[in-house]
Amino acid sequence: MKVIARNRRASFRYHILETFDGGLVLTGPEVKSLRAGEVSLEDGFAHMENGEVFLWNVHIQPYKQGSLHVQQNATRSRKVLLHKTETKKILGKLTIKGLTLVPLELYFSDSGYAKVKLGLAKGKTGPDKRQDLKKKDVQREMRREFSGKHRV
After folding, report:
1. Which pLDDT score is estimated for 62?
2. pTM greater than the 0.90 cutoff
3. Is 52 left (phi over 0), alpha (psi -120 to 50) or beta?
4. 2-124 homologous superfamily
């Protein structure tokens, strides 16, 4: 498994309740851009339409050496391939108020297919975010103390 991109802000903005892995329907130039690592998951989200999951606002840079005749849209919606039972499970959970589906990471499987890890998430409030920042600071201080590189 080769990870292409991670959504680092997702764990700061959301409580991740459950994860799902699914395939992506892509065009050839998009796959080449993914292999070059030209992708951003920052503003991406997944949405259910007609019983299918689609990935929105994931920015895949148009392939530079690609055809000039075919216009490539960097933020088009892309279909996510999931099992029917997973889709039904997601649909049931998304009806609960406050839950959303966010892309956590994009990767190539061992067989070479582009995959996306989606997380069922609930948004964090301001106090939750502050608490996470405090935990991070405490862990950083503890690492400094134990490594012996702290300032006096």
Report:
1. 83
2. no
3. beta
4. Small protein B (2.40.280.10)
